[in-house]
Amino acid sequence: MVDRHPAATAASGFPVIANLSSQLGSIAGANRFGAPSYAISKAAQNMASAQLAQALAARGIVVLSLHPGWVQTDMGGEKAPDAPFDVVAGMLRLIDAATPAQSGGFFDWRGEALPW
After folding, report:
1. CB hemisphere CA count around 37 (13 angstroms)
2. DSSP string, 27-89
3. Which of 55, 57, 58, 112 has its CA 20 to 30 A from that of 73?
4. What is the pLDDT along the chain (116 residues), one digit of tens a residue?
5. Is the distance from CB of 39 to CB of 84 less than 8 angstroms?
6. For the chain, what is the radius of gyration of the CA atoms?
């Protein structure tokens, strides 16, 4: 079980907004055709995260865009390599450690920076 108060401040001391995205929203990573509506919506969400990060920087609010990966869910299917608990725990670790230097960034659930 993962227990997290939704309005909690990160352990780093900064409030964090974490948007769930997808690497399919990466324009730099667009190397195939597939699911254009989904990819376009995630690219727009990534832009919203980047803009929100700029708007909230002066208030010390960190905004992250997070890619959970291919997860064993109804959408990901049983062949997906990542268990939901592991992915959620990884994203919560990122959120807890988030700093203003990361605000506006796009990361996978392990903390690796992803290209826009």
Report:
1. 0
2. STT--S---HHHHHHHHHHHHHHHHHHHHHGGGT-EEEEEE--SBSSTTT-TT-SB-HHHHHH
3. 112
4. 344 555 556 777 899 999 999 988 888 888 888 789 999 999 999 999 999 999 999 999 999 999 999 989 888 888 888 999 999 999 999 999 999 999 999 999 999 999 98
5. no
6. 14
**Tokens linked to 115:** 């290209």
The one-letter amino acid at 97: A
Give the list of residues 6+ apart from residue 52 with CB closer than 8 angstroms, or none: 17, 63
Q: Which two tokens stand for residue 109?
A: 């659930």
Cα 10 from Cα 22, distance rounded (Å) = 22
Q: Please state, in angstroms and rounded to a whole number, the distance separating the CA atoms of residues 61 and 42.
A: 21
The pTM score is: 0.85
Token digits of residue 24: 């399919």
